[in-house]
Amino acid sequence: MRFPNEASPPARYGNTAIRAMIACALCVSVATAAATPLVVRQFTSMYTNFGVELPFITRSVVELPYMFWALPLITLLIWRLWPDRSRGALFALLFAIASLPVCAGIVIFALYLPIFQLGAVVG
What we know:
The chain is mainly alpha-helical. The chain contains 4 helices and no strands.
């Protein structure tokens, strides 16, 4: 039950909130995309010393570390193409936040898979 002086909640986010959500979403997605090549660079010299063929997922991450730069573009597309821009900003932010652990998990799995395979052969 509403009281006569009680204001109704806003149906949409304000422009400042939308800008803040998009800025945060872009920061998270750019950080994810920028960190990947830095991490991959540490592992590439080690893989050349192995002398074995790398698994497909590892080869993909090592040869195309910049593929994660699609994340900021996808984030912007979610915001721009969503029917309601204020909800689109929220979903773009949620996508960016969810993509961080997913991408990190894929990269970590891909980079450590050859090490575990080599350890299984040696052990």
